[in-house]
User: Fold these one by one.
Assistant:
Number 1:
Amino acid sequence: MVERVSEVAMALTAPTSAREIAERADCATAEVRPHLEWLVERGILEKATDDPMRFVRNEAYAEFRRITELTREFETPAAIADAITEYRERERDLAASFEAASPDAVVLADVESEDRDEAYDRLSEWRAVTRRLSELHDAKRRLESRHVD
């Protein structure tokens, strides 16, 4: 049960009640509450509201965890540099397709209506690529600090 509650907790992007978390984890609400409090104490979750009690994933913790996973995956600054190059190329391609400097500069209303679904998908990918690039750079800095001669 702890694993199910933790998995649900890490997927929370909006304030969510203990009852909703229990439903998603296929557990009783009373059983879930102590685990949610434990996750809050550890900084994995945050209490978004007190009345009613709602929880949300701690984004700083989630980012730390993603960066830690990247350092394990790539192991060396050189290996992660190759991934950064690949993501940077994809980011440039996506920027060129929108003729924009950043995903925030894109206005989907300016896209032809028949192309909007595809544009939305590419814009979502661009945002994900941009976020991943930031995480890769952070992971590279962490790896470089470990590999100082």
Note: The chain has two domains: 2-57, 61-146.
Number 2:
Amino acid sequence: MAVTIEVRDFGTSKDGKQVDYFTLDNNNYTVGLCGYGATISSVRYADRDGNVDEVNFGFDDLTSYEAHTSSMGVTVGRYANRIKNAQFVLNDQVVKLDVTNAAGHSAHGGLNGFGKQVFSGEIVETAQGKGVQFTYISADGEAGYPGELTLTVTYSLSDSGVLRYEYDAISTKDTYINITNHAYFNLDGIKTDGSTNVTEHEIQLNSGFITPLDGDSVCTGEVKPVGGTAFDLRQQVRIGDGLDNPHELMKATNGGYDISYILGVDDGQMKDGAYVYSAKSGRAMQVKTTQPCLQFYTNANLRETLLRDGKTVNKMAGFCLEAQDYPNGPNIAHFPTAPLRAGEKYHQVIEYIFTTEA
């Protein structure tokens, strides 16, 4: 069945901008998208017994999105992940960014990154049929980043459960850009009693190398093989197995997974990133992307949070799979991260493929 799209008013932001909420529905899958942060707000589909549940962390109201600090489902940019000392060198000039934490680094694009901005939205035609395109124009110097950057995020939903999003951008000056989405998922559905947990999910992540972090959770520039460690997810394993026997590197990430895996080169080709499965519900999720890296995060830093419908989640309640460029790439010469030159086009694709197995 072709997807239908409904749009409604989601309220007015603190800075006086109208925010729209789009609901994509094809009878098998329902996806909610919010113009605040170009956010994936809701994903609902059936388990093996036909029970339809919410599998994505999100809020009922704009005020909660504005108040929350865990990037719940938002588009992250200009540069996702952390940049050491909140600066980088570009064209022989030191570019200073917003400092976002006590350690003096910059994370997820600054104090008011893309996840805190209001995007305009419209219904468009895509290769998968009708979709929603969000647009935001980031001013020259916003959060310290050079160039006026025009970004579009285009979401579409197929009959078979492929949620595809394409990022396109162009800048008036040379700059760095690294866009991802920070959606949180639990394939068992979000529970009302606070018991939602991801440890029994199984994951396969198609990478043999990670980029380790320092004590401030900033990428050091090292590249280490995963063999023989809790980070080796190349064969499908229970997520809790690694959490039960945490690696030394997990001390910096509160005992959970929060690290970037290298998928391959940034050549514009789609890569099989990861597969997550819940034996309890039968739901599965696959991630494909053109991006060179994939951050796996098990919400170890998530504080008790009240979501829509009165549902509460805590630490280890879900997982994020954030397809992105190399973390701290602008500061690490041997990483292949390249600046986006003025007038050049940035294009990346991520697909979340939702299925249910018998």
Note: Residues 4-356 form a domain with the Beta-galactosidase; Chain A, domain 5 fold (CATH 2.70.98.10).
